[in-house]
Structures are given as C-alpha cells and as structure tokens.
Design goal:
Helices cover 31% and strands 20% of the residues. With 525 residues, the chain is α+β, with helices and mostly antiparallel strands. The chain is globular.
Length: 525
Amino acid sequence: MKQFFAISLICLLIACSTSKQSIPILETLPKLTYQQMLEDHDTLVSNIKQTSPMIYFNKEVRGIDFTQHATSLRKQINPKTTTKQFLQIVNKTLFAAQDGHTGMLGPSGLDEMKKYGIPLGAVRGIDSTDAENSYKYYDYLKNEVYAKLDLNLNYTNGEYYNLLPFSYKGKNYPAAMKLISCNGIEIHQFVKSLTESASPLRWDRINNKTYKEDFYRYSEIYKNNKLKLVFQDKGFDEHKLNIVKNDTVTFLQKKNWKYAYNGPKDTVTTHYFEKQGIFYAKLPRMDVQLGDSINQRLGAVINKHKINAVVLDIRGNGGGYDQTYNNALKSIVKDTLRQNVVLGINWSPYTRTYYEYNRDSIQKEPLFTFKVDVPTLKEPEMFYIKITQAAVVPDSIKYPFEGKVYILQDRYIFSASSNLSNLAKNSEQLISIGETPDLLGGMQRSPFVMMLPNSKVIFRVEPQIDFTDNKTVEDTFKNNVEYPIQYSIDNLYLRTTTKENVFGKEFLLNDDPMFKKVLELENSK
C-alpha cells in the first residue's frame, strides 16, 4: 500500500515543467511516417482512456467528451502531416483530457525522471536516452503554443476583470474593466470552447461557468495574428482592444502583492489579537517544519493569554505533506480527526499490469473492493480503496483550548492544503472560509509517466479519483467550503496594490473579507 499513498519528492519534481535548457534546432525533430503518427496517437488515446478516471468524470458531470475530441483530432493526421503539426495534435489531445496532472513532461520533469524516477523504478519502460526528443518538443511547443501577452486578468464573482490599469499603443485603459467578449463571442462561451486549446479549464460551480484567467496566452485563438477583446468600464463605456500576437502591454501601477500560489521564500506569519482572543497563523505551504513552528508559537501565546479561536490561513498554499497541518493543530484538536476515504482507480489492462493485480488479489485484499456505498461514475469499471485515515491526531501535550479553528482558503490551494479544506468540511471543530479552487480535487497520487512508441513523446496521466463523502457524483469535484467568500474586484485591487502587509494585523482587521467573517462568526457565538 505504500506506493498508493506516499507523495514522494520524485513525483513532485517530475510534475514541474520549467528549466533553463537551451533551445535546440527545430530541424532536428525526428521525421515520422503517417503510420507512425497514427500508431502514436492511438497509443496516446488508449493509455489515457485506460488510466485517467478524470476524463469519465468530465464527460458525465461537465459534458466534456474526451473520445469525441480525440476522434476529431485523429482525423487531422494525414500523409502530409509534419512532425510539428503532429506535436500540436498530441498536445491538444492531452489538453482535451482537461486535468491538471495530465500533459507532456517539461525539461525539469524530464531531468528529475532521469535522475530519480527511472533509477528508483517509479518510471517504467522508459530509458534515459528516450528523453532526448521531449526536450526538443518542449522548446517547440513553448514558442508555438503560447503568446507573451499578460493582461493580469482576474476572475471573481462570475466575471473577468483586468486588475491593473495599462496602456497599449499609446492608449490608456483603466483598472477593473469587465471583459465581455473575445473575437466577437461572449467571453464565457468563448472560453468554454477552448477544451483543446487551454488546460486545465476551471469550473465555477456556483455560477456554472468554465473559466481560465490566462486564456489569451494560447496562440491558436489569435485570428490573423490579432486578438479582439471588448471591455466595459464601471461607467458602462466599452473599450475595444485589438492586440497583436506577442505584443505586450505596459502596466500603469505597481503590483505589490500577488494573488496566486505562494513561493518557496514565503514564511510563517503569526499574530495574537488580544481584544478578540484570536491566534492567527499564515501557513504558506505544507512543510512539516512550518507546522511545528506554528505549534510552538501557539504554545508560547496560549500559556500567557486566553485564546478563543485559532485562524489557520492557507491562502496560496500549493500543498506538500499532510503531516504539516497535523503538527500545527495536534495540541488543540479535541479528538482524532478521521476521514473514511474512498478512492477509485480504473480497472484496465494497463493498471492491472502496472500494479500486478487480478480479480482474486483485489477480492482477497481487505482494503480493496469492486463495490462501494457512495455515488461513483457510470464508467469505466473501477476498483476502489477504502481506508479510515487519521488526518489529525491529538498530541500528548494539550493546550487549554476549546474554541473553533477557522481555515482561510482561496482559489490557490492544492494537494495537502486541499485535503485540509476537505477535512474541515467534515469536522465540527474546523470551519472553512473563502474560495474553492475550481479544479478537480481530493486525494490524488503520483501520475503514471508514459512514452509514445515512435515519437518518444513522454507524458503523464493522473490515475486516481476521490469519491470520499460523495452525496452525488458532482461531489467528486471536492473542495467545498462552508462559508463561501469571494473577493470583489475592488478588494482584489486593494490587496494587489496596497503597500500595507496584507497578512498584517491592521489589514486583516480592516480590509480582509475572510478574516472579517471569522470575527462575525465569533461575535455571533
């Protein structure tokens, strides 16, 4: 069972896709025959269908039919198709899977695959020399698929807005304009149509809208080398922007704070609000030592002051190790916080070979089953893992605390931080406040790394889906929040441009809508 639940450094590193590799000569791309391209594409589609449960969720719940897209893309391959054109077809097919863990490996991922994944057996059927082509493919696609434009768009409350004022070709555009159309099509309908061009598309369940804030970075949407955008300002005046591919805009105001995932240099911040009796801790990522640090600081304060509530701020926390939040909370939880986890994996020839399982071995293993009592997917056939997991275990050293623990989250949580959010939903002591990531969440595992036989394209696919606590199939999306709070565009503008520390005591008290919700809930007790 170790291979099922260990989130190793190897696989986290393989997931990365940036590197400082030099750009190779594109003319050295291998020549592929028509039959080789067909074989590779058929292999790609077959492997995704066999291993990805996400494409079946997308079809049943979101109406995204991977097979339909893959079939259409295969028809674009003909005897005159070049290797470059074929690479774009492969890339679009991977995009059509619409899963953030499914796609080609980039240079950094290839480096780590060679250094760790292959020698340690985490990657099978691939030799280090096989990676040579994929470095070239990455450089080609990086320059061909993506444009340089950055508009700093933000999606909130069901709409797109430009966060900062900017100028383009001598004309100034104000901040907080609402984007209403692209290339003559209403913006939400336009972005929804980009299944093969942009991935992963986020799904706003509250407004039932598909969105991607940087959709304009995908070169394919530029018509005749131009992108036509129409904005509407606060006075309802329209601003038409026809921007040339690979042009850039000039921002007219400095961005002092980012609204995104935290970086490796972000550190723990703690405060004690004496009047309210609240201990606040910002946890930037799930590093075990950061959880220990929060626990120690909490202990130092709680031994001197009365603490009515604890706030654990995981906004921007991209994940890491689940042990982190156990260490942060273990001295204040009343009881062990458990989850009855239900995980699904496709029952296919590929997965059976990979895990060396057959029906008899599944039926003999007490943690495995072919039937569960929660809503799952209509297809494919799956086997399930059922375990009771102790997510937070009380420590022998208990702090004098009987209050609530509020989890503040935004759109930028993932992996272990997303697991904490899910845990809060099922715990009376933990309460989640804020935004949902709008990406398929839950407990995932290390992606399968595979290679196409002729082109040697190396890609990965997420093989696991989380059905824990499902009441409906749609609940598989996970990442619910108990008290939804969405930033207004004015608040996002303030958070981005203020010189004040947005995680400081004054900003939290006066200008942070999520922290204000904590105060409201505490005052109502």
